[in-house]
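User: For my dataset I need records formatted as: sequence, then structure tokens, nothing else. Please produce one.
Assistant:
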Amino acid sequence: KMCEVLAVPRSSYYGSLEKTTSKRELENQELTQKIQRIHLESKARYGAPKIHKTLLNNGVCLSLKRVQRLMRKAGIRSITRKK
């Protein structure tokens, strides 16, 4: 009845019940934890380029833009001074 009222196909409803997190999402969560750890170790001084370089030195292969996106999603920002 609810599917008819909301105009949602039944297959979409049952598909959403069995929805699991994707491999990419699990990887992003793990990377976000690593980024947060590096950010805290640097006393919130490191921005995306330095965090990216640190991750590459630790053997994690990813792009700078992905680091930037994950930092933005997690609300992580570096301390900046105004000149």
